[in-house]
Design goal:
Length: 340
């Protein structure tokens, strides 16, 4: 790469895109990398502030920004992702399906720490939709040492930094608990909320029953759905520590392995997660806040469940930082700090 006066650059080859920015009108390249400069191009280049221009010189030890950007993309990209057009050393990763984004934070940070290159992405463990932008990468200088890109590949490791796990077509059952609902004293307003949240991820409700507060009856209802082969059972109501709230005991009595009863998230502290049998089918106890709060612990966990991830207690324990929903007048989740 060589710097020379623009007026002297006729016949030379541009080694980078030349961008024109007019506020509110355009931000795009007026010339692309590889363009051979003509006499007519000189006034245009001067009009975008290019009194001097970088022209291409071959150097076996250096890589052009676009060639290096391809290497960055290969470090990041996995199945169900597609690249954008390479432009000014930038490539974006686009989701090819709805799914859960997983990010290897340690390796992401290792590449960004090298300097002269960057990878910016969405938060991991959050859902993305087909067509969403997952990440953007860029080489900072116009050219970069091949050796530095080799170090970047070593820092990134053999596996891609990102993974997009498609959501599974899960069949769910809902067990409503509470004498007040069972005897018709109040209307069941919990079930419609759960159905709508499951629809966000393509999960289908194939069974629903209302039980009284007898823990044996609740256990029997859960067990019936499990025996019928549902992929997940969601229990609503009876999740607090009041003596007559028996849902946690009922879930335990199915033989399900309790991962956690309680979560460092508000709303959602009384959340219960368990898995049943060798297939690790989730049996979940949802606290009352899921019924009336816009976003809760359930919104943080559900996409991971529907992606087929088997969560451990440590996964729930780490939700404390960012686990406070601010109940904003206009909810922008997941484009906010909740769960991050």
């Amino acid at each position: 790469m060589k710097l020379m006066r623009t007026e002297d650059a006729v016949g030379q080859v541009l080694c980078h895109d030349i961008t024109q920015i007019i506020k509110g009108v355009t931000k795009d390249a007026v010339f692309r990398k590889g363009h051979i400069i003509t006499e007519e191009d000189i006034p245009v280049l001067l009009s975008v502030g290019k009194d001097h221009i970088y022209i291409w010189e071959n150097n076996e030890n250096m890589l052009h920004e676009n060639d290096a950007a391809k290497i960055l993309y290969d470090m990041c990209a996995n199945k169900h992702m597609t690249p954008s057009e390479i432009k000014e050393g930038k490539i974006e990763l686009i989701a090819e399906c709805d799914g859960l984004l997983k990010v290897d934070t340690e390796r992401l940070n290792a590449v960004n720490a090298l300097g002269e290159m960057m990878i910016a992405c969405r938060h991991g463990n959050f859902p993305v939709k087909k067509g969403d932008k997952i990440a953007g990468t860029r080489i900072i200088p116009l050219v970069i040492e091949k050796e530095k890109m080799e170090r970047a590949k070593k820092a990134a490791g053999e596996k891609p930094i990102f993974e997009l796990i498609p959501f599974k077509k899960m069949k769910a059952a809902i067990v409503n608990t509470g004498n007040e609902v069972f005897y018709g004293r109040i209307k069941d307003t919990f079930t419609p909320v759960i159905i709508e949240k499951l629809k966000e991820y393509g999960a289908e409700v194939v069974g629903h029953v209302v039980s009284d507060d007898n823990h044996e009856h609740i256990t029997a209802a859960i067990q019936k759905f499990l025996d019928e082969g549902v992929d997940m059972v969601l229990c609503t109501g009876g999740m607090s520590v009041d003596p007559d709230d028996r849902t946690p005991l009922a879930i335990k009595n199915t033989g399900a392995e309790i991962v956690t009863y309680g979560a460092p998230v508000l709303p959602g502290a009384m959340f219960l997660l368990s898995y049943y049998g060798e297939k690790k089918r989730p049996v979940i106890g949802l606290p009352g806040c899921v019924m009336y709060a816009k976003r809760t612990i359930f919104d943080l966990v559900l996409p991971r469940i529907v992606a087929g991830e088997i969560l451990k207690k440590a996964d729930i324990d780490t939700l404390g930082e960012g686990g406070l929903c601010l109940n904003c007048p206009v909810c922008t989740f997941p484009n906010c700090g909740f769960g991050k």
